[in-house]
Amino acid sequence: MKKIPASFFQSHQVVQLAEELLGCELCTTINGVLTTGIITETEAYAGKGDKACHAHMGRFTKRTSVMYESGGIAYIYLCYGIHHLFNIVTNTKGNADAVLIRAIEPKTGIDIMLSRRKKSKLDKTLSSGPGNVSKALGLDKSLNGISVCGEKIWLQNTQKEPVNIVKTTRIGVDYAGEDAKLPWRFYDANSSFVSVK
DNA sequence: CCTATGATCATCT
DNA sequence: GATGATCATAGGA
Questions:
Q1: Which nucleotide in the DNA or RNA is closest to residue A141, CA to C1'?
Q2: Does residue A130 have a pLDDT over 90?
Q3: What's the CA–C1' distance between A16 and C2, in Å?
Q4: Of A86, A100, A105, A176, whose CB neighbour count within 10 A is largest?
Q5: pLDDT value of position A186
Q6: Is the pLDDT of residue A174 over 90?
């Protein structure tokens, strides 16, 4: 059980980071309730040079400002008016890189996640897909900008068996032209908790 | 199996 | 006023 330090997220290699996060355990304590899950799917967003990133071409707005902070904090925003998407900001201050968590495999507090998702049975839809991950873990935009090495959100390296990593293209970013084809999505082929295979 | 559609709102133009 | 790093559901092939 090793808590991952903020320095880990300050690497300049977002894409590599996204890959390394597979298999780590994402933990949250919201309203005093603990829920955790193993990360099974991620995507990398490489700041300025990436058209699919909210901060491409150095775009700086109120929403994207947290992405320019030093790595190790959460970037959570509302998408399509309904879903909260959870990202981990990476790289050093001034670089707007982030890793989107797209799916987890529920581990601790499964009953809590079921009730948050209004489900009665555990299946892959409980926590696969970025909107569902946030909902299951109880994350919303009020937590935007807080540390991912803190009391409410943290990650730990529980490396179980090696994951079978697959690299592929990102999802829902067709508008990004050439950048939509980059193989910056990673998932664990051994897990059924993956949004799209 | 597949494609189409509604939900719903903070942020940006 | 338009739009999106999505999801669940409905209906047709």
A1: B10
A2: yes
A3: 35
A4: A86
A5: 97
A6: no
Mean pLDDT of A51-68: 96
Output residues with Cβ under 7 Å from nucleic strand C: A 43, 45, 52-54, 67, 75, 78-83, 85, 87, 98, 100, 117, 125, 128-132, 171-173, 175, 195
> DSSP string spanning A119-184?
-SS--GGGTBSHHHHHHHHT--GGGTT-BSBSSSEEEEE---SPP-EEEE--SS-GGGGGGGGS--
In this predicted model, what pLDDT tens digit does every residue of A179-197 receive, in sequence order? Answer: 999 999 999 999 999 999 8
Give the pLDDT confidence score for residue A161 in this predicted structure: 66
Q: Is the pLDDT of residue A149 over 90?
A: yes
Q: Which residues touch strand B (CB under 7 A)?
A: A 61-64, 77-78, 80-82, 141
Farthest CA pair distance, chain A: 44
Domains of chain A, earliest start first = 2-188 (3.10.300.10)
Q: How far is the CA of A128 from the C1' of B1 (A)?
A: 21
